[in-house]
Amino acid sequence: MKEYSSEEEFLKDYNPKEFEQLSMTVDILVVSVSSKDSSNYRKTDKKMMSILLAKREDYPFKDKWCLPGGFLDPKTETLEECAKKVLKRETNLSNIYLEQLYTFDAIDRDPRTRVVSTSFVALVDKNKLKQHVENASWFDVTFIEEKNNVVDIVLDNGNETIKMTIKKVLREKTTDRYDYKTVKNDSLAFDHDKVILSGLERIKNKLNYTDIVFNMMPEYFTLGELQQVYEVILNKKLLDPAFRRIIANKVEKTEKMKTGEGHRPSYLFRYKKNERD
Amino acid sequence: MKEYSSEEEFLKDYNPKEFEQLSMTVDILVVSVSSKDSSNYRKTDKKMMSILLAKREDYPFKDKWCLPGGFLDPKTETLEECAKKVLKRETNLSNIYLEQLYTFDAIDRDPRTRVVSTSFVALVDKNKLKQHVENASWFDVTFIEEKNNVVDIVLDNGNETIKMTIKKVLREKTTDRYDYKTVKNDSLAFDHDKVILSGLERIKNKLNYTDIVFNMMPEYFTLGELQQVYEVILNKKLLDPAFRRIIANKVEKTEKMKTGEGHRPSYLFRYKKNERD
DNA sequence: TAAGTTATTAACAATATGTTAAAAAGAGGT
DNA sequence: ACCTCTTTTTAACATATTGTTAATAACTTA
């Protein structure tokens, strides 16, 4: 091996292809809440989580659904910049909550060649979205966790239903971390079923000790609406007084009211950023 | 663009170099606890966190310290397998706690070319380690967090002291996530100062809601020793009765005692894996 | 005006955590 | 043998947080 006497001298000679190379992509789990309102006069609308999927137009996995994503250009952009670019394209939004989730890298996750993918979670308020996105569609999420660590996820966009089943296997030396094994997945490209499960669990965990939920809420909301969002993410009913105490210092009451719902009107609240929790 | 009629046909034709490629590495923050015992007869030993660093033998960053790591071979291994390989080389241990931390990818983080690095945290019990590792050394960690989100980290291996200063900048749309800006770092290669801070914060956060601490403990330990480890990771004093209640259902008392410490002997405890917490 | 529905909060119960203080017991020194 | 030092261990109480029940409020529609 040639001897160098300085960092500069070494770099002048360096051949970037010295190590084997690979391609990278980003995949983004874009999450929002939707309200499926029933048609009766009392609008007991039911909040659901919904995620954005795109239809693949090319091989591989042609005509399957997948998470919005794209290849990283190693010359010019970081993974996060690439993710923001994809988000801008798919939602026309910028300045939204974006968090690196996990880097998925099973050797055969892409049938073409070795492609490592760093996934992100983005949280958006659906009200701010532009109307239609080419080849993309929002799917409501139903999440069924069985006792034996088997999870069924059902996605529905009104026309089409996608089902997948994943088994969670406890990792060695841990009590709280899992490997995901796909049991059944016929409609989603790549390993995006695992990305979805991973992202949904991340959101669920973070709900209790962060303020992320407000990234999915409009500026003004009732406490009932906020509670419904908590309930759909945590997948369980909460009791009103307990819930209100817990979020009390995260929101502030405004003068506005929401009326016309067929029952006592409620105050509209707003997110209040706190110094220290 | 050529038209294909099946996935197989497409793949037969696929050129892996179609997209720009890059190299990937893994970096591992190997964390343990050490006991610096003072020489007085009452062995009021002080626990510290310690991390493993390696001295770089080649360019770039020749002769600087860095985290153990290595290039990924995209043909044959996953990131985690690569991390396990590095761990085996540096500590001769396998079957240890290993968790993917974050994928660092600043465009200029490696002066040679674009190298994206996925970092891992490994937790080990130092007692299980082989004696000496070539070119590697354990550094005790001192962590000083200033009020204004500036963190000083001091690393010491007995011969050498490494100091670094990092500023934490709150990320947009969040109340709990930070970008790290290096203020001062003269001795650590690449962006490993950020990896270290990121990993230490991850451990600190997970301490309260997981059982990770026991990966750094020997099989038998006193509650005083366990409490010291909590204190050094959380960087604050805990009150005995409160601490004991909190960890009560994670440990089980054994018949063994630890004596000869110059004070009342203490029972030795053992980690007890729990059904449900 | 009555019925139905959700909003809001008071009041109490149960649990969890913070704090003080006291008793226990080995090592070392005299 | 006894005293001192030290840490271990636990009891007892104080405080804070969260769970639960139930009562009242206020709108919409019939």
Number of helices of chain A: 5
Assign an overall shape of chain A: globular
Number of strands of chain A: 12
Tell me which protein chains meet in the greatest interface and how many residues each side has: A-B, 56 and 56 residues
In brief:
Chain A is an alpha+beta fold.
Question: Key features?
Answer:
homodimer, 277 residues, alpha+beta, Nucleoside Triphosphate Pyrophosphohydrolase, Arc Repressor Mutant, subunit A, ten-stranded mixed β-sheet, 5 helices, 20% helix, 34% strand, globular, DNA-binding
How would you characterize the overall build of this protein?
2 copies of one chain form a homodimer. Helices cover 20% and strands 34% of the residues of chain A. Chain A folds into 2 domains: 23-206, Nucleoside Triphosphate Pyrophosphohydrolase (Alpha-Beta Complex); 212-271, Orthogonal Bundle (Arc Repressor Mutant, subunit A), CATH 1.10.10.10. In chain A, the strands form 2 sheets. In chain A, strands 1, 2, 3, 4, 5, 6, 7, 8, 9 and 10 form a 10-stranded mixed β-sheet that branches. In chain A, strands 11-12 form a two-stranded antiparallel sheet. In chain A, a hairpin with a 7-residue loop joins strand 11 (251-258) and strand 12. With 277 residues, chain A is α+β, with helices and mostly antiparallel strands. Chain A is built from 5 helices and 12 strands. The first copy, chain A, has helices at residues 7-13, 79-91, 192-207, 223-234, 240-247, and strands at residues 23-36, 46-55, 65-66, 69-71, 97-104, 115-123, 136-145, 150-156, 161-170, 178-185, 251-258, 266-271. At the A-B interface, helix 1 and strand 5 of A face helix 1 and strand 5 of B. The structure holds a DNA duplex (30 and 30 nucleotides).
